[in-house]
Amino acid sequence: MVRLLGRSDARPARRPREPGSRRTPESTLGGRSLAAQVFVLQVVVVLLLVVAAVVALLLQVRHDTGQEARNRSLAVAQTFANSPGMVAALNSPDPTAILQPRAEAARKASDMDFIVVMNTDGIRYTHPRPDRIGKKFVGTIQPALDGGVVVEEVDGTIGRLVQAVVPVRGAGGKVVGLVSSGITTAHVGGTADRQLPLLLVSGAAALALATASTALVSRRLLRQTHGLGPREMTRMYEHHDAVLHAVREGVIIVGGEGDLLLANDEAQRLLDLPPDAERRQVLDLGLDRGTAELLASGRMVTDEVHLVGDRLLAINQRPTDLAGGPAGSVATLRDSTELRTLSGRAEAARERLDMLYAAGVGIGTSLDVTRTAEELTELAVPRFADFATVDLFDAVLDGEEPEARGALRRTAVSAIRKGAPLYAVGERIRFVESSPQARCLREARAVLEARLAGSPGWRAQDLERTEQVVEFGIHSLITVPVRTGSLILGVVCFWRSERPDPFDPDEVVLAEELVARAAISIDNARRFTREHGMAVTLQRSLLPRTLPEQNALDIAYRYLPAQAGVGGDWFDVLPLSGARVALVVGDVVGHGLHAAATMGRLRTAVHNFSALDLPPEELLGLLDELVARIDQDETDDSAGAPVSGATCLYAVYDPVSRRCAIARAGHPPPALVRPDGRVEYLEVPAGLPLGLGGLPFETVELELAEGSRLVLYTDGLVEDRERDIDTGLELLRTALERGAGGSPEQICQGVLDGLLPPRPNDDIALIVAHTRALGAGQVAEWEVPMDPAAVGEVRAAVVRQLARWDLEELSFTTELILSELVTNAIRYGSAPVGVRLLRDRTLICEVSDGSSTSPHLRYAAMTDEGGRGLFLVAQLTDRWGTRYTPMGKVIWAEQPLP
């Protein structure tokens, strides 16, 4: 206890002993100190314990000696009596001759003093001393003759001994002889005598050890008591106890296990402790959680203020084991109720700082104006206000810069309870000039209406509604403008109902800080909304708004822009000559205006290149060169950013031959749903993404059965942050198999239902094309000899075919077109020359030859004899052109059907 209360190096002064005075018993024990007395007492106790242990050991050894002699004698006698040949030896003419050697061998082997075999009269047949053979056995034998066992301690011919007598049974269990074995107690006890010095040495060592440990304990006690005797210690304890309970400062001593060891009177009063508080756990004394945890923790604190009941206590606490002392802690308590006001202000400041920090990290987590406004109201309620509303101009919600006048729209509301008669979310509000909100917007500063019931300007907004608000219990209001620079975006209102005190000017400052932080996030979200809207507008303007009319494919498509930003995905359906249709899907890596603009440039390029009727691999090659040039231009211009990657897939389907040519540049492979429902991914060489250059692209050509579904898509459909592309492709296969029997529209919807993530982070483009075939009845072909006279025969055949198609109205113009084209092929081209008519949405005339030279439209001079044929063709048709084939070229012309 003295150690826990604190050490003191100031010992009481020792008075010198007067001459002639008698020594007290304390002096006889080695001084007046309590440590010396304890030392002597402990040495005596240890010595007595050692002596008692030695005596007990000796007694135990003596007892064990006798018991061992009995057990050995009996065991040897019984073993020898039951040994083989014993009965035969007793019945032999000379038992001694047979048994004496055996008995002596057994005696030596068992370390016994004697083994004696005798007849039923007690006459010995064997003995260690041969002169004793034939004499009477000394001991009790009658119980053994009766079939029992005799074990006794007697004074025999060789001294004091323990002997056992056992019977030897013959046929029928009859006793035919006796066997006795014995050992002298001196022989057995010799082992104990030899061990006694070891025992004494061990006792001495134990005594020395105990004495040393006692000396250490006494030395520790001497250090603890500072050499004080019992009377001095009693006086010092009484003095310490008096001081401890007299000071006007609470003192708490807590043990290492968190139990209360001591609490003085002042601590009892300050903490309102129960009478039986000592020796109980501090956490179980009914103290407030913070104070109890502090006292039980033992951590070092200085003037830490805790509210206990109606008192503010300044607590100082130090652990007691810093200098090797016992585990625990000492705490002093000082009543600091006068600091309550200061502490309350500090707590309010801490709460405000905490709220501002929460506003910094919790407001503006998304670039959405409405969500940012909701985050502000959710933070303010209930920590700062009971109700919070945000009203913004419609232009802000659309991403535009507003004018600080006109109506606002209620954007967000948070409340501690439902049913408040405030304007609901989505309502348009026009504040009257006298209202606090209008003054706030007009003056661009916060306005405090401490008591709404007495505010005629606020009540003028809507007399019926404001009366309901007051009756609901809302009594105080702060309005703060949402301002960034000179731009005012709206107004935030904080309402109070639960706490009776109105808002004060300090809370107005806090409200302004909160709204100022939120205003930055709202303005950022507004700017993002504007930029995103511009990008979406640009993107949608660059994408096809409607699909062109054609009969080769029945097409359904979906295009979903990313939620987080505009990407560079695109698709297109391009009618080509000869009733063919080209399908295109592509993806520019990245998001934003740059990606959308790049996508528009690539889509325009694909339109232009497709008009040349190029094979897919050549078109992708030209597109690759274009992207490389774009990258070069953007790299030279530091303000631009290069295209970090673009992929594209280009497919051309011919409904006459039902063949489809496909090439891709780093794009996901197309899927094919066959008419029987089987789904497979077409093995089209991937190629490098556009812009990397260096390697040519490859085209795969395959024949599609009528009714097949060709599925093209961008990687946003099959890949996102939560799944890799292999998983997405497998999910797409499953969705296509599930909807294989549906229409293209149904397949599109089924794929999106199965694969669309909740919030896509990339654009998604999807095309499902159902293939059709141009029947034999819609196609007519002729081979033309290289003879100008054959032109007339072709014209006649074409007129007959048009009659069969009920297209006689087109006979004249078709004859003129064919005459010019076939004549040019025979005159300037090479064999073979062919003519093909296709009846589709238009009448298509095609003239092919083996030459790769192409005619050009030009204006003929007045004196020129030729050069007007193609001019007539262009005037008589809607479209005409040239496409090249591996065998030459085809010149085609389209006429509208009547």
TrEMBL record:
Basic and acidic residues: bias regions: 1-25
Transmembrane segments: 34-59, 196-217
Region (Disordered): 1-28
Single Gene Ontology MF annotation: kinase activity
Main location: membrane
Topology versus the membrane: Multi-pass membrane protein
Pfam families: GAF_2, HATPase_c_2, sCache_3_2, SpoIIE
CDD domains attached to this UniProt entry: HATPase_RsbW-like (cd16936)
Alphabetically ordered keywords of this record: Cell membrane, Hydrolase, Kinase, Membrane, Transferase, Transmembrane, Transmembrane helix
Name of this chain's protein: Histidine kinase
Ranges for domain GAF: 368-532
Cell location: Cell membrane
